[in-house]
Every structure is written in structure tokens, then in C-alpha cells.
Amino acid sequence: MSIYGKVPVFDCKTDEWVVHVAQLNNFFIANGIDDITDAQRVRRRAILLNSMSQDSYRLTRDLLYPNTPESTDYKAIIAALDGHFDPKKCIYAERQKFYSAKKDPHESMVEYAARLRGLASACCFGTALEMCLTDRFVLGLDTASAREKLFREDPNQLKLNKALEVACAVESAQRIVSAGDSAELIKSEPVLYTDSRRKATASGGTRGGRARGGGDGGAPRCSVCGARSHDTSVCGYRHLSCNLCGAKGHLKRMCSKRYYVHNEITTKKDKIVKKQHNGMQNNYILEGSDRDECNDFSPINNVRDINNESRINTILCKEEKPISLEVIVRGVTLSMEVDSGSGVSALPARIWYMYFSRNLSLGESNKTLYTYSGSALRLLGMCYLPVTYNNVTHNIKFYVVENGPVPLLGRDFMTKFNFAFISLNYCSVDKEKFILSKYKTLFSGGLGTFNKYKLTLHLKEGVTPKFFKARPVPFALKNKVSAELDRLVRAGILKPVSYSNYASPIVAVLKKNNDVRIFGDYSMTINKALIIDSYPLPKISELCASLHDCRYFSRLDLSNSYNQFLLDDESQKYTCINTHKGLFVYTRLVFGLSNAPALFQRAMVQLLQGIDGVECFLDDLLIAAPTAELHWERVDLVLSRLRDAGLMLQRSKCSFFQNKIEYLGFVIDRFGLHKNPDKIKAITQARVPGNV
């Protein structure tokens, strides 16, 4: 019996579960594997389990415990994994994300429309879907001319496809006009290159001489933007401010205060000419503030090794040709791109099959490689191949990539062949963006749910239940208290009940933003009856003792920390509150319970145990390390555990890769613990006493 297609391997760390299930169902349909008979259902289960990576299988086994995957029905396995990877979402939270969406400056109109459709998929708009999509598309545009054109359309006739067509036409017209106005603008920033320490001269040229280049060399450059096509007095950038010195009237590339090392390398076969300008090192960072200086940049084929956390800080303009070398790989002459931003060397699968697969076999690799943009590369395996350059031969480790665009020589090649690197300052912005993209579900803003176990409140024996009437709520706060109670019920934090032996009055506190926060006054009821959990909270001196020699710090803060932990059914009845709207019980851990800090601290410590350099004080997490590479490794591991546990973080209170950080009212850096100046400001700036 022939088999149509193949089932891809599902990796829970990189792949999307919903997509894998869809591919799996298509495979079943193509091969006639239904779920009518027991034999077919067993076959479905076997194919599903066999399509999992080891990490995915372990996760499935943990989710199904005490049952085993092999003894569980196929549909039950799918349901368990659906609940883990695609939990039920709050419709209002998803709609808030949808209505807050705006077009990103780097996003095309088509990509923006596709993103809106993805956001709308969980909003349950029903028959109003087309209208909502069209409205959000038009109102979220970042181009005034496109919005203005669409505002003239009849809203009753305008559909998303029509709006997309109009917006794309406006975008295309603007691009053509912009290209015509700035055809000769310099669109490249210095790019990090390498040079060989061996003697290298251009054929017929002189070392250190001026490079011959084409272009309009006779016309004077505009002192504002550097173009030769117009005079300074009519430059469209003359009213902008410099990103380097802040002065108005020129761009950063024409700033007189700018000194840098710029290596101009031209290649002709194996010959490289290097020219050095003033300065000692380059500092490169890819940020949105430089878009006016390099409007057309795109990441080069950088590869990032997730194990050794190698950095990628290079950008390449589309008009800049890549640096290539002709090398001999196992007797085959290949033109390969040299990339100092890549920690490894790589071969596309087509080249592997064309030249080397007949006599060699690939070894397995447990590494995961990512492109600059964060997309995972599919590896077929690895191999060692002899590489000859300048009559010198070394064995180089190559990773074979399924859809690799070009053969790549990374820093491992440069190190063995004695290439020199120009100093490049470490930059954490791209790494932070990668981390936030990889763990975007952690920062989605919803209410997390700790999925390891439920918390239990233990009462002393022989305790008599106490029931208190509801306290009167001030008239000015009554509507706000009612609204807050409704919000907590919608979020699943509160649950209305009609009867309870326990009832505590509430305390309503007015916050700075004029909202109210509701607490149960448990000091009058169950706090005296609880068996106190003696799990200790760490002291600041104990926390800092483990941070010796650490230079890099990150801080994480849980969103609605206590509310992310579920209480078991028996414990919920003890948390009952009595309000002007009736009785409610908390389904989750709540502030005001005397046991709450100890229960929360114990759960967090158990979750993060075994990771060095990580300290936890309730919902404030501190991650520290002596080196940048080790620091990001620890951050990645902590975020992975938090995500797997179902917890959520508050992005506005998280900070990554800091040389010093504020934690628990103190400032911590490589030199130790310091008082926070803001905390002692009132004392240090107090007026000197005039009398005794």
C-alpha cells in the first residue's frame, strides 16, 4: 500500500501545534486513515506519537499522567495538547488586541491585512467580521494619504479586499515617487567585515591606495544628506535633526562629529584590499531611529547558534554586494559568502546533494539554528569537509540546511584561517527583540493560569465558621465596586454563590487611576483559623549573596501574580466575600490571606529550582550572570519554564540585560548592593535643622 506525503516532526519549542494538527489530518485523509474502527484509531495514535520530537513526547506524557500516551485514546491526546497549546481565550481580551492593532512601519499592506485576519480569528465577530476587519484596517494605517483616500469611500460599499487594493496602490505610488527623488542617496551604513592577516593586494593596485569607484564623482555632495543630485538649499531633509549630535540641518552620515572605522573591501578571486579610516572600533546597532539613513536594509543570512548564544549585529543594504570567497571544498570549487555575524558555516541542501551526498553521509545534530529574524532553520544534519583557501587546508564543520539560500562561511572558518576581526561592541537590543518574539505568549497581557497543581488552604481542627454581613459601600464608589466585581467574574477570578458558611466583608481601595481594588477582610474570619505555612521569604542579604561576580542583570515581574494560581474546590469556600451584590468566592489565590505569600513563594521556588543566578521574591524575579552568553542562556531557560507553567509576565515592569538594576528598593550592580537614591532622597535633601 502506497503512502501519500509524510508527517513532519512536531517540536513543541519551535512549531505551531494548530498547524501540525491540520497537517496530520490532511495526511490521514490522503491515506484513508479514519477513526471508525479501533484499529484505525490505534494507527492514528501511533502516527501522532511517532511524529513528535523527544521534548514533545515528554510534554505529552506529563500532560496525560498518570495515564500513558500509548494507553490514551487519540482524541483524548489531541484534547490534552489543545488545552496546553491553545487554551480557551477571553474574547474581550482578544478584541482589545484586535482594536489596538496598527500597521507597523516595516510591514507591507498585505502583511498588515493578514495579521488583522489572524487577530480576528479569536474574536467571534460572526457576521460583522468583514465590517470589523475593514474598519480596523483603515483606522490602523500609518500612511495619511492612504487613510485620506479610503475616507472618501462609501463605508457601506467598502470591503477589506477593496481597501487593501486602494492602500497598496497608494503605497506603490509613494514608493515610486520616493525612489525617483532619492535615486542617488547613499543608503548604506558601514558593515562589519573581516580581513585576512595574510598579505592581500589587488591585482595591479597599491596597498593602502584609494579604491577606484564609479559614480558621479564630480558633482558636490549635499551637506545635509550626502546626495549629489541636488543642492543643500533644496534638500528635503534640511529640517530634520541629526541622530548623533541632535543638531538640526544634517543627517547622521554627514555629521562632522562622526568618526568611525570603515573597512572597504573589494574582492577579485582570492585577493582582498582593505582600507582603514580614522578610529579604533565600530559600534553597530539595528534600531528604528536610523531608518532615514538606510531606508532599504534587510538582514543578511546570519545564523544564530542557540547553544553558544553567538551575537548577530550586522545589517546589509540591498545595494551592497556580499563578500564572497572562492574556496575548494573536498575538491569542488565553490563561491561562498563570508559572514562574521554567523557562528557556524552552512551549506544549502541542493549543494550537498549535488556534490557530496554520493560518498558521504550526514551526522545528527541537536543544535537549533535561527536566522536574524528569528525564524528556525530546518537542519538535515552536519558533516566535516576539508576546505582549501590560499593553499592552506582545514577541516570545517558544515551544517546542511534544507532551504538555505547561499553557502556560508562563518566565524569558525575565519578563526581557523587566521582572519582578523574588527572590535564590535556587544549589543542586546536584537537579542531582546528575539526573546520577546520567541516568548510573545508570556507578554500577551492576559491572565495566566499555573498548570502544575492547585493550591490548598488548610484550617485548624474544630474551627467554627464565621459569617459577616456586607459593609455599606460609599455611594461615590458603589458603581466602581460593582464594575470591578463584574470584571473579576468575567475574568474567572470570582464566582457568585448563593450560600456559604464563611463570609468576609470587603475593603475597597481607590487607586491612582481612580479605579478600585477589592480585598476581602480575612483578618476577621479565616486568617485566625488557617494553619500557617512556614515557608520563609528570602532576605535581601541572602538574595545578593548568590550574585557575586555577576555583571548582567534582568528582572521579570508576574502580571496579577496571586490570581494566576488556582485554588482547589474545598479551599474556595473559605475565601467567600459578602458584597452589596451578594456572595462571591475566589477561584484563585487572593491578597489578604495570611498563607498567600508562603504558598506563592514555595510554588515559584520549586518552579525555578536548579537554575543558577536566579532569585525570586514573590512575583519579582532577578536573573544575573557574570557573562553575556550565560546571562541570555539563563533568561531563556527561566522564560521557558514560566511559559510551560502557564504564567504571564507584565512587559512594562520587565527589563533585560542591564548593567545595574533596581530590585526590592535597592540598586544592584557588579560592585554589590546600594541604596536607591530615590528612596533616601527625602533624607539627603532635608533642610539642616536651625535649632535643637
UniProtKB/TrEMBL annotation:
Start and end residues of each stretch annotated as Disordered: 197-218
Gene3D superfamilies named among the record's database cross-references: 3.30.70.270, Acid Proteases, HIV Type 1 Reverse Transcriptase, subunit A, domain 1
Pfam families: RVT_1
Residues annotated as domain Reverse transcriptase: 490-668
Alphabetical list of InterPro entries matching this protein: DNA/RNA_pol_sf, Peptidase_aspartic_dom_sf, Retrovirus_Pol_polyprotein, Rev_trsase/Diguanyl_cyclase, RT_dom
GO terms (BP aspect): DNA biosynthetic process
Extent of Gly residues compositional bias: 205-218
Organism: Parnassius mnemosyne
Full protein name: Reverse transcriptase domain-containing protein
